[in-house]
Design a protein that fits this description.
5-stranded antiparallel beta sheet, about 500 residues, alpha+beta
Length: about 500
């Protein structure tokens, strides 16, 4: 059997730094486009200052809106293991690390750049408490043996602080299969410092990728719409030029008698060439022109229409929405109006499928993060369980009335309370656990259907004891209740 090849840590760090530098220009470009720092639209070489100012104002950045649309639809609100009822113990570390708020930073960075990273480490204060840290792609590199199959990388380098020149070295953390290294960075070299065992069975860095091809290449939203964003800025410049120079009606006058310029004594003024000086007429919307010359002719040049520019801009925005699978009415107000819930759901069908795809990818990554949290906390079984699942918040456009109506039908079929309540928009896992606890404390039942049947049985027993009280029949399974029939408080009150 061949001897195990010795790992060269320095070579790995060198490769990781080279890969970070290789991708840096591309990721910085992505960051600049997200923040609206775009290249200026094309303009003539001899453009004056007024034209250049119009070019600056023509930047119309809609990329953040394209990124926010899927980000707002992604929110983890629970974690389920088959061996535990409710959220397991490792969920408290999600809460203590403020991941309800910080998860959106991970999702947004991954959607922008194509990937983002999360590392799970032991707390310096307590080795049994995990810390969840988030990292941008521009400062992180993770090497995978097989990026399509492997959940964890072979090694990863995370730049905590970049070098700022001589006397101000940068800091980085390097993880491999067994150890965690402190690395000091300079402009042209690095120095490996303290080494400690991280205690995990693999590199504790998790990658989040919204979309990947069979070659292991990750794709984000921004790079797919950069050229269209430049085109949109150019069209806005054309629109602003048309509005600025030809967007108003121009008044003309021919044969207008000029007014001589007079000095303080009322005498005509002359120029250096001996010719009399005249006051230039002001022709703008605030003045009225009067001429004693009957040959004077007044006219108007109509404003140039801008509808074609607006249609072209709308076409580019719709194309950007199509490429990113974003519903057009998210960006173009007025495209959809007075639609039913079913029609609105149909308009967002492609977007919903995209969100499902992203949830599948991000869900696997969050599950690995929580499994590592369980391992650090001493729960070996919590790490070994691979069929656990994160619970995503329902961000659909269903109304509360629709969800409640569907929930009542499910309860009549005997579906447990926890499953029914998880389908109601706005109900968090804490709300579900509280409702379930209240039902169990009151009647010792596990479903709203059982609760309703139990109350009906109690009321019917009272009716038998008091002949003047009408009994209430429980609805048949799958039957729809009539008005007032679903309110058990009315039982026993009918004469």
């Amino acid at each position: 059997m061949a001897a195990k090849q010795k790992v060269d840590t320095n070579a790995r760090i060198t490769n990781a730094l080279a890969q970070i530098n290789k991708d840096k220009d591309r990721l910085v470009m992505v960051d600049r486009y997200v923040r609206g720092l775009h290249p200026a639209p094309f303009m003539p070489r001899n453009a004056n200052s007024e034209f250049k100012e119009l070019a600056k104002r023509s930047i119309h950045n809609i990329i953040p809106l394209l990124v926010d649309a899927p980000t707002d639809a992604l929110a983890v609100e629970g974690y389920r293991r088959p061996d535990v009822t409710g959220n397991p113990a490792e969920w408290k570390y999600w809460q203590s690390n403020r991941m309800d708020q910080r998860q959106s930073l991970v999702h947004r960075a991954a959607l922008e750049c194509g990937q983002s990273y999360v590392s799970v480490r032991k707390s310096l204060l307590d080795q049994k408490v995990p810390e969840i840290r988030i990292h941008p792609a521009v400062r992180t590199f993770a090497a995978f043996d097989d990026p399509l199959f492997d959940a964890a990388p072979m090694y990863a380098l995370i730049i905590e602080e970049e070098s700022k020149g001589e006397g101000s070295p940068g800091r980085a953390t390097f993880f491999d299969e067994k150890f965690q290294y402190e690395v000091e960075l300079s402009e042209s070299s690095f120095k490996v410092g303290k080494r400690t065992a991280h205690g995990m069975p693999h590199c504790p860095v998790v990658r989040f990728v919204p979309k990947m091809d069979l070659l292991g290449r990750a794709y984000g939203i921004v790079e797919t719409v950069v050229q269209m964003q430049d085109k949109l800025n150019q069209m806005y410049l054309s629109l602003m030029i048309a509005q600025h120079y030809t967007g108003f009606a121009i008044r003309t006058a021919t044969g207008l008698a000029p007014v001589e310029m007079l000095d303080d004594l009322g005498n005509p003024m002359y120029g250096e060439d001996g010719q009399p000086l005249f006051i230039a007429p002001v022709i703008d919307p605030s003045t009225m022109l009067i001429s004693p010359n009957p040959e004077t002719k007044f006219g108007t040049l109509q404003a140039a229409p801008t509808e074609d520019f607006m249609k072209a801009i709308e076409m580019v925005v719709q194309h950007m929405c199509a490429v990113t699978e974003t519903p057009p009415h998210y960006l173009l107000t007025g495209t959809l109006s007075n639609l039913s819930a079913d029609a609105l759901a149909a308009a967002e069908s492609a977007f919903s499928r995209k969100i499902d795809e992203i949830r599948h990818s991000f869900g696997e990554s969050w599950e690995l993060v929580l499994r590592l949290c369980a391992l650090i906390a001493g729960d070996q079984k919590g790490y070994e369980i691979e069929d656990a699942q994160v619970q995503w918040a329902d961000k659909g456009n269903r109304s509360l009335a629709q969800a409640v109506d569907a929930g009542l039908k499910l309860t009549q079929m005997g579906v447990p309370t926890t499953i029914v309540l998880s389908k109601i928009p706005g109900f968090t896992q804490q709300d579900i656990d509280e409702v379930k606890a209240l039902l169990e404390d009151q009647d010792g039942v596990n479903s709203m259907a059982d609760k309703f049947a139990s109350r009906v049985a109690k009321n019917n027993a009272k009716a038998e004891a008091n002949p003047g009280t009408a009994a209430v029949k429980a609805p048949k399974e799958g039957a729809s209740t009539g008005k007032g029939a679903a309110d058990p408080s009315l039982a026993g009150k009918a004469a």
